[in-house]
């Protein structure tokens, strides 16, 4: 049943987990992920730039839009990876990056994905997977603004290390 519903969703996930360079690099290597791109979402400013988002005044987070083949990897499996690579208990911070643009956020594209994400968070909290409660926002995806080209596949292009927690 999960495969059928995910096929109808187009196999897309949008996650924010801190600096988008490392998050994109990590997800791009997972079997079943067919495409990744970094951008900005979750805020109120139209057509934000990296410089705008870095001010923390746009409401946007640095996010990665992930397209995937649900016959190879499920949305729930992507969430398992998502929760492994960052600290979902720290508001507005991941490692050395501080600000609302680095917050932990899941932008769902359908109520099925919302429910899967909320259930995952509830389960992780109930088993005490982290020392503190998860603060990840689960919100509807509105608009995704693709980041500037130099941010796309940044780790791959530059060889600079990733800025997310290694699983």
Description:
- With 167 residues, the protein is an alpha+beta fold.
- The chain contains six helices and eight strands, in the order H-E-H-E-H-E-H-E-E-E-H-E-E-H.
- The protein has helices at residues 2-8, 20-28, 50-54, 75-84, 111-126, 154-158; strands at residues 12-17, 33-41, 61-68, 93-94, 97-98, 104-108, 137-140, 144-146.
- Strands 7-6-1-3-2-8 form a six-stranded mixed β-sheet, with helices on one face.
- A hairpin with a 2-residue loop joins strand 4 and strand 5.
- Helix 4 (75-84) packs across helix 5 (111-126).
| Main beta sheet | 6 strands, mixed
Radius of gyration: 15 Å
Low-confidence stretches: 1-9
Strand percent estimate? 15-25%
* Silhouette: globular
String of helices and strands: HEHEHEHEEEHEEH
Helix content: 25-40%
Number of strands: 8
Mean pLDDT: 91
Separate helix tally:
6
| Oligomerization category of the chains in this entry | single chain
Category from helices, strands and their pairing: alpha+beta
Strand order of the largest sheet: 7-6-1-3-2-8
Distance, first to last CA: 29 Å
């Amino acid at each position: 049943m999960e495969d059928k519903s995910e096929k109808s969703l187009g196999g897309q996930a949008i996650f924010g987990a801190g600096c988008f360079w490392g998050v994109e690099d990590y997800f791009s290597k997972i079997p079943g992920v067919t495409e990744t791109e970094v951008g900005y979402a979750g805020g109120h400013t139209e057509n934000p730039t990296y410089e705008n988002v870095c001010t923390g005044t746009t409401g946007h987070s640095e996010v990665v839009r992930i397209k995937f083949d649900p016959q190879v990897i499920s949305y729930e499996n992507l969430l398992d990876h998502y929760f492994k690579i960052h600290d979902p208990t720290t508001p507005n911070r991941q490692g050395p990056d501080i600000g609302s643009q680095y917050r932990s956020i899941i932008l769902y594209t359908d109520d099925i994905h919302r429910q899967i994400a909320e259930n995952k968070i509830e389960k992780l909290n109930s088993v005490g997977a982290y020392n503190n409660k998860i603060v990840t926002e689960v919100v509807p995806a509105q608009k995704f603004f693709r980041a500037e080209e130099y941010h796309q596949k940044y780790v791959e292009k530059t060889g600079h290390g990733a800025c997310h927690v290694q699983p």
